[in-house]
Amino acid sequence: DILPYMDRVWKVLDDKRRAGERILFEGAQGTLLDIDHGTYPFVTSSNTVAGQAAAGSGVGPGAIGYVLGITKAYTTRVGEGPFPTEQKNEIGEFLGTRGHEFGVVTGRKRRCGWFDAVLVRQAVAVNGIKGIALTKLDVLDGLDEIKVCTGYRLDGETIDYLPASQGAQARVEPIYETLEGWKGTTAGARSWNDLPAQAVKYVRYIEELIGAPVALLSTSPERDDTILVTDPFQD
Questions:
Q1: pLDDT digits (tens, 9 = 90+) for 102-130
Q2: Which are the contacts of 216, defined by CB distance < 8 A and separation ≥ 6?
């Protein structure tokens, strides 16, 4: 019987907010699976962007003070759909194996590729993201070079967004910037000083490209192996 657990959610949340209590909303699935802003028809059946937290809960959008986006240090996708930076080669296999890239629900093998700053920058804009939790940096340890997609080439023109039409999405070609990799390990790092210089350079370059600072940096599957740059719960 679930009736005893039913309440006016908007009222409960509004009371908590007015009392100065912290409220955390956690979304599921990626921005590009959003039914309105995603890569239709390769999307889910609902909204996955940050704005859904307000619409679904009854909290006014002006009451949401901080939006934290979560992305890996490389790019993955489960199932069909456009994936400009996908690596159908030994790099893709390396990322998938090292990162244990299998879908949590389906168990399907994830497609893997280089970090796509175009897609992440688009997600930052659509969600109003103020900070990024960058995960799985340690998966990139040991690579001689690391590529980052900084833009697309479509029919001879350079663009900085993913087109809406399937035909155009299939024709975009990634424009890469190649960075030197690092030989040291980032696994288990809990401060900037623990990171190889090239790893720090990589993170800073990502910040520059996506237009959002890295607030948290994860360096292993363990919860404690995190560099907390900005506490989202601090005023």
A1: 877 777 899 999 999 999 999 999 999 99
A2: 68, 131, 132, 133, 134, 226, 227, 228, 229, 230
